[in-house]
Amino acid sequence: MLQNIFFGLSLGAVYSLIAVGFALVFNILKFSNFSHGGVMSFTAYAGYFAYIWLFNGRIEGILMFVAVVFTAAVVGAITAVAIERVGFRRLRRNQSPVIYYFISSITLGILLENIITIFASSNFYSYPVFFSSKNIELFGTSFSVADFVTLIFSAVALAALLFVLYRTKLGLGIRTVSFDVNTASLMGIDANRVVMATFAMSGALGGISGVFLGMNYSLYPQLGQLVVKGFVASVIGGLGNITGAVIGALLLGIVEVGLIGMVGSGLMPAFVFVIMLVFLLVRPQGIAGKIVQEKA
Amino acid sequence: MDYIYSILTLTGITMIGVMGTFMVTGLTGQFSFGQAAFMAVGGYVSAMLTLKFNLPFPVVALVGSAAAMLTGLLVGLPTVRLRRDYISLVTFGFGEAIISVLNNSAQLTGGAEGLVGIPKRVDLALVAASVACCLFLVACYKNSKYGRQCLALRTDELAARSMGIDVNRLKLVTFLFASAITGYAGALYAFYAQYLEPGYFNWTVSAEWLIIVFVGGINSLTGAMVSAVILTSLPELLRFASAWRILIYCIIVLLIINFRPNGIFGDWEINRLWKKSKPVKGEKA
Amino acid sequence: MNASSSLGLLQAAGLCKAFGGVKAVEDFSFEAKPGEIVGIIGPNGAGKTTAFNLVTGVYTPDSGSVVLDGVELAGWRQDSIAREGIGRTFQNIRLFKGLSVLENVMTASDPYASYNFFSAILSMPGKRAADRQAAEKAREYLNLVGLSGMEDARPESLPYGLQRKLELARALAIRPKVILLDEPAAGLNPSEVREFIDLVKRLHERFNFTIVFIEHRMEVVMNLSHKLFVMSFGKLLASGEPEEVRRNPEVIEAYIGEEE
After folding, report:
1. Measured CA distances, C89 to A60, B158, B162, C178 (Å)
2. Disulfide: which of A38, A66, C247, C253 matches A112 by Cβ 3.0-4.6 Å?
3. CB pairs under 8 A between A and B
């Protein structure tokens, strides 16, 4: 039981990284960023190739893991910033309707996925086992080291994010712009810079979650489609609400682990969908949120 | 010849699927990200009915469309009253859910191996006739009070409501109509290909339809149809590998979105050719 | 179609609305008798537009009532309130950009079009007749506001003044008993303002509906209104005949206070 909850929490921690990365961009540009999945796929591969080309044989164990995660985060940040430049900068300048942001993000997501398909899908890649000792004994139950590390890393990443959001000038800028981009610009905030920083942070989180997903599953171009878990967590938690996203993701992780025991993993997407539907019917504003109204 | 015949047939079926996407996205501005799942419902329901009860095609096609519409109700009912973002998330989740159910009910649907032994009941002529019929229905819809109100709510939901338009109901009606049409495309596909597998209906298909609608211009049914024909058949004829094809699509879309946001056709419709056309004042080219 | 003068009694009482901790409208009441032209004035940020949004159902009031001809509308959906007979225009013009000028007006009368889904998708004769009638009617409204000949134009290509008129025509098409105009003369030049005043008077004579409007321009306020309500900080500050309100020291102070 305890073991399952722990496993659920660690799964939920990965989901929360996805959900928060998604929520960050939603918060600031008010649209669902489907390219986030593409970033995750891309960084999962980037982390893997960094391991093969850069670090293999030089470092190992936890150090190797940190190096891979760090590389993936950096690549994720760069990719997301590039996405913002190519896909959204001009749209923002033209004040295009939300519908265009959507199409742009979908297109970029598919683009990334297909680039990987073209260049990497012919081979089967899989992350090495970073942690040799499988389990830690604690409170009379054994926990897997990988889960433990996942949980800790996610917590650290989220803490760092919250620190930036609530304790730095940049974070203040982000929160201001997400409140009202026009007013923020009037107050002398460089909206482009803030949006770019947000994408970088979102991409870094996407990169970290990409590595975790790559470790849990093998590497395949469609890996990033697990971003749907982040969407669901966001809906459960309240669209665009960071705390809500984390709570929703942890809940989702625990519920999933419980459900796998009962219905198996195959039907999971169906159950996740039903959970989301129930939430939308009963509490559309999510656990934490108030309904974000479309701008009148 | 067979090859061309099959490309034409599949293009026709895609056109019908694209009509569904056009209605949901082009008319009401909602993002259907799981439109292909309705195709799956239509296809599987009609195929299974024939395999189990040996019912004729027109009956099962009708039931298949109705089933797609019912699932549309399940998805649409909770989402139409929410922000537009939700419908994309929910339809996305719905698509995944349908595929997982299909994959995991092997006794009924053949699971991941696919559903085999569907009799061939659909040929190019039937598909062509279906395209014509569906196009007529959708064009009439667009050209009626429903279509007008849809376009109104797409540009300004608040103003639409204050003109007395029941926005939620209209979104739902349009969504259901689109689901039914897409379901019919599924039935056509099932009885043409004689084989169904869940992987054929995943979200990339839905995304491809969205891209097609978008390239043609979200305001133009004509544009959506022309772009469906070109984007489906041309790469096939040129024998592009599918990943490269999609890569090229993506680049086209990114160019269009940044430099010609109304798509290739803008809001031009083919019936302007025979409508008495007055020069329109001040319209942008 | 011509509303008889006994219809169009709009009574709003005790309206309250808070956003977060900010009380945008607090215990605001006003009344417009059938066929009356009523102005709501007040400094910027006084809550006038919010009051309109409460009456039309964009926001649900926290408390208070909105009664039209004896029917309680508070808590109703926006579209139901519109169909009950309250039309409106917007401060920042909100036309349907994807539609032509004619279609913009037709859309407003579409909720009354009698054909159903199936005659729509089959383009049955009944549908076509109904659409022809709606187009006819819409042309009439466009003609009334002086927009005939521009049916096929795009609303966004019209000059600002004409866009205001188009909004008015669109509001007419819902066959309102009461029409709410939110700063209808904002952005118009002096000659357009005079023209606009005449237009509103003409429409009022013809349809005899009740008009409630928000306006800053004294020329419009004094020329049109039979009665004035003054809002300040979300509350009703004063009400009465225009001349009487204009002399009210509290009102003068509210306005002067704003200019500091």
Report:
1. 68, 12, 9, 12
2. A38
3. 132
* A contact residues 138-157, partner B, Cβ 8 Å cutoff: none
Compute the distance between CA of residue A8 and CA of residue A10 in angstroms, rounded to an integer: 5
Percent of chain B with pLDDT over 90: 55
Whose tokens are 């889960």? That residue is A147
From first CA to last CA, the distance across chain B in angstroms is: 41
Place of tokens 């990988």: A146
Using the Cβ of C98 and the Cβ atoms of chain B, whether some distance falls under 8 Å is answered with yes
Q: Are B243 and A117 in contact (CB under 8 A)?
A: yes
Q: What is the DSSP string of A143-203?
A: EEHHHHHHHHHHHHHHHHHHHHHHHSHHHHHHHHHHH-HHHHHHTT--HHHHHHHHHHHHH
Q: What span, in angstroms and rounded, lies between the C-alpha atoms of B91 and B110?
A: 24
Q: Which residues of chain B, if any, have pLDDT below 70?
A: 240-241, 274-285
C8 Rama sector, left if φ>0, alpha if ψ -120 to 50, beta otherwise: left
Contact (CB, 8 A) for B214 and B253 = yes
Structure tokens at B25: 């996205």
Walk along chain A (296 residues) and give the pLDDT tens digit of each residue: 778 888 899 999 999 999 999 999 988 888 889 899 999 999 999 999 999 888 887 887 788 889 999 999 999 999 999 999 999 999 888 888 887 888 899 899 989 988 998 888 777 788 888 776 667 777 767 778 888 888 898 999 999 999 998 999 888 888 888 877 777 777 778 888 999 999 999 999 999 999 999 988 888 888 888 888 888 898 888 877 888 899 999 999 999 988 888 877 788 888 888 888 888 888 877 776 655 444 43
Q: Which residues of B touch A266 (CB under 8 A)?
A: 100, 103-104
DSSP B110: -
CB pair distance less than 8 Å for B152 and C107: yes
Whole-angstrom distance, CA of residue B64 vs CA of residue B121: 15
Quote the CA–CA distance of B81 and A121 in Å, as a whole number.
Answer: 41
**H-assigned helices in chain C:** 48-55, 78-84, 101-109, 117-121, 125-145, 160-172, 190-207, 218-224, 242-247, 249-259
Query: Would you say residue C161 has pLDDT above 60?
Result: yes
Return the structure tokens found at C194: 């005079």
Q: Do A273 and B84 touch (CB under 8 A)?
A: no
Q: How far, in whole angstroms, is CA A295 from its chain's centroid?
A: 26
Rounded Cα distance between C53 and C86, Å, is: 12
C123–B149: do the CB atoms touch at under 8 Å? no
